[in-house]
Amino acid sequence: MILKAVHVEEVQYGDGLAEIFSIIGPDVPPWTRLVDFIREVVQAPGTKALCREGGCGVCTVVATVPDRESPGHTKTFSVQAVSGGGGQCITYRFNTNI
Ligand code: FES
């Protein structure tokens, strides 16, 4: 399985822009780290990486997924984008700085 980003929208937050996108196929291998996917495929370099080990929180992005316990609703939570591959995040909807 290969991944691809689908751009959903750009939204204004204060002085900056944020990119909202979902991951589907095909563009890059599923083991590509989420942070690299965001920076290189989505081309949103506002998402940063520092320690690349999950210790500093610099790479945190916001993910939204359907709530299986409450049909018709979503859950929103933070994800450290260096912690996993983009293949674990298919159908997640992300919000990150551009
Ligand atoms: S780069 Fe340090 S936690 Fe993500």
Automatic annotation (TrEMBL):
Domain of life: Eukaryota
Domain 2Fe-2S ferredoxin-type: 34-64
Listed name of the protein: 2Fe-2S ferredoxin-type domain-containing protein
GO molecular function: 2 iron, 2 sulfur cluster binding
Coiled-coil ranges (or none): none
InterPro entries: 2Fe-2S_ferredoxin-like_sf, 2Fe-2S_ferredoxin-type, 2Fe2S_fd_BS, Beta-grasp_dom_sf
Residues spanning the signal sequence: none
Organism: Portunus trituberculatus (Swimming crab)
Keywords: 2Fe-2S, Iron, Iron-sulfur, Metal-binding
One Pfam family here: Fer2
